[in-house]
Task: inverse folding
């Protein structure tokens, strides 16, 4: 199993920035990709950004040009830099680890991001 611990959420005004970090521990050798998902009240959890071990990156259309995902393999962390935040970015942000098709994904407990207008 993989344990994921998020940090960096909070309250920010529209147009502001936040930086989320996620530290992975445990069976990290199984990690194929890491990413961030978010869930707004009353909505389904959605992919925000993901990065594979080979460096391939995928962003949700709604965050392209504003968010940047990166990894520090030496520290087993993934970071999401969020700029030009909008109220619609509000939600609980979850760190995710893709462990391949034969193992369930790892999930963090989530960190709240609130963007006020």
Result:
């Amino acid at each position: 199993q993989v344990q994921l611990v998020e940090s960096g959420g909070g309250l920010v005004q529209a147009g502001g920035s936040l930086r989320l970090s996620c530290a992975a521990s445990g069976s990290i050798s199984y990690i194929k990709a890491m990413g961030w998902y978010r869930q707004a009240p009353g909505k389904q959890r959605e992919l925000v950004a993901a990065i594979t071990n080979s460096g391939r990156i995928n962003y949700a259309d709604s965050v392209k040009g504003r968010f940047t995902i990166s990894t520090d393999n030496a520290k087993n962390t993934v970071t999401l830099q969020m700029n030009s935040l909008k109220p619609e970015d509000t939600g609980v942000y979850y760190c995710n680890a893709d462990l391949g098709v034969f193992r369930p994904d790892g999930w963090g407990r989530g960190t709240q991001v609130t963007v006020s207008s």
Remarks:
- The chain has a mean pLDDT of 95.
- The CA atoms of residues 13 and 116 lie 5 Å apart.
- The radius of gyration is 14 Å.
